[in-house]
Specification:
Length: 219
């Protein structure tokens, strides 16, 4: 496996034993040999395979942080969760390691230090194209769901397709992001979510509308 130079520099930084076996705070960073082994074990996963991921840790939770090598995600850190919340968490290895150090210092779970909002991908055009390609491909849209939190929410055409998709998870994901980042220009998308036939989307859609109205009220 070829490691990018910044990943080699990261391995130098985590040689200390303090980064290992701290399962109480969900920290167990892997050395290069372990990274190869665990990444090979998870190579079947569509997020690891499609985003050219390299697994960084194994905190004995079935969840992992994954370094991404595929454009436009290069250098970002994805959280590969066994259940939900599969999304990009950190824009860089340095940000990931800063959160690890904070968790160790404070005795707090690394999971609890995940940001509420994912970092936005710089190349939004490429990200939107990537999501569109995924939603028109047969499958479970797992890639799109992991990428939606990194949208800047300005491509209303794409958001409309997601909000009205038969896959209600896509509409729900969009509505959840509007709840986190409510702005007036997203009202039309929130209203589309409210009109979805699946209650899981309509419920979050109404929350998104309330978030937009609350933002207006504050102003």
């Amino acid at each position: 496996m070829h490691f990018p130079s910044e990943l080699l520099a990261y391995f130098d930084k985590i040689q200390s034993p303090v980064y290992r076996n701290r399962f109480d705070v969900e920290v167990h960073l892997l050395n290069p040999e372990e990274v190869v082994t665990v990444t090979d074990l998870l190579a079947y996963h569509p997020l690891v395979e499609s985003l050219e991921g390299i697994v960084l840790d194994d905190p004995d939770t079935s969840n992992h942080h994954v370094y991404l090598r595929r454009p436009p995600f290069v250098g970002h850190i994805l959280y590969l969760a066994h259940a939900d919340d599969k999304r990009i968490m950190f824009p860089s290895l340095d940000d990931f390691l800063t959160a690890v150090d904070r968790g160790l210092k404070q005795g707090e779970s690394l999971y609890n230090l995940h940001p509420v909002c994912s970092p936005l991908i710089a190349d939004q055009a490429a990200l939107c194209a990537f999501i569109e390609e995924d939603i028109f491909r047969d499958g479970d849209n797992e890639l799109a769901l992991a990428c939606i939190p990194s949208l800047d929410l300005n491509n209303l055409s794409l958001l409309t397709k997601l909000a009205t998709s038969d896959d209600f998870y896509l509409g729900e994901a969009v509505a959840m992001e509007i709840c986190k980042r409510p702005t007036e220009h997203l009202r039309v998308i929130a209203e589309l979510c409210c009109q979805h036939r699946h209650p899981q989307v309509t419920d979050v859609g109404h929350r998104a509308l309330l978030a937009i109205q609350g933002r207006q009220f504050v102003k």
